[in-house]
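2024-03-11 09:14:02 DEBUG pipeline.ingest accepted 1 chain
2024-03-11 09:14:02 DEBUG pipeline.ingest length=291
2024-03-11 09:14:03 DEBUG pipeline.predict start
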Amino acid sequence: MARPNLPTYSICSLNDNATLSNDIIADHFSHYLEVHKDLHFPHRHSFYHLVYFTKGTGNHSIDFIRFPVEAGQIYFMNPGQIHTWDFKAEPEGFIINFLDHYVNALLADAKYLQKFSFFAGIANRQVVMIPKVARPKMHTLLQTIVDESNTSNEMKDDLIRVCLIQVFIETERYTTKAETKTNRYNSTLLRNFQQLIEEHYKEFRLTKDYAAMLYVTPNHLNALSKDLTGSSSGELIRNRVLLEAKRLLINAEINISGIANELNFEDNSYFSKFFKKYEGVTPEVFRNKYK
């Protein structure tokens, strides 16, 4: 029997607010959950997504990594990532879904969102705890966005954009202190490496390929990766391949051979051995977990 496709939600499919464009949704989280009771999990988004919790218990996952729900937590997701929720108590907070060009309409830099570590597409960097002393300010910013989204005020979208960018900047200041102390050149080099992995992981699997594109030696790139992430450059490349394999495995109608081909493995057997070595189970067992 064919399994259903993994749903991918667009803003158009979720927007019930006639005062908003189809570029953004802003709401109190409890109301959003009430309106969208038919959300299926796991799922993908075709937009950027953030949630700030003011209360609640349970967990959520980003690309198969689980995080506990806590008051003061804000998380971000990029388009295409896999998401699930499992709340134990009714959560409260704010949710904002937006397209990149909604923010970029106010900016000259089309790659502005890439400045923020939580938009790098790495799940462990996408969940940030806001200190208690900073939470009233965060609450005010998000409340302003929700309030403005329900008006027809002149230039309301520009005010929403300004508040949203301020949310990004305030959050970035509370990311891991180790990263903020990192040499700016090294931090930029790592981010460029991660972006290249995102673009080329299907075709290039060796550190030397990426080192050549970055005009550094493989040893330097490997040392940099270990120093800043705790993982070797080879592990970062491999983890991205493994992540895409997981995404494809729960996304229904493509068979194992098709996934192996999509990820440029020599054959189905080689892909299965790769997956079991690093995930601990076969692709079939992993897929069955999400039926």
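2024-03-11 09:14:41 DEBUG pipeline.report The domain at 184-289 is CATH 1.10.10.60 (Arc Repressor Mutant, subunit A).
2024-03-11 09:14:41 DEBUG pipeline.predict end
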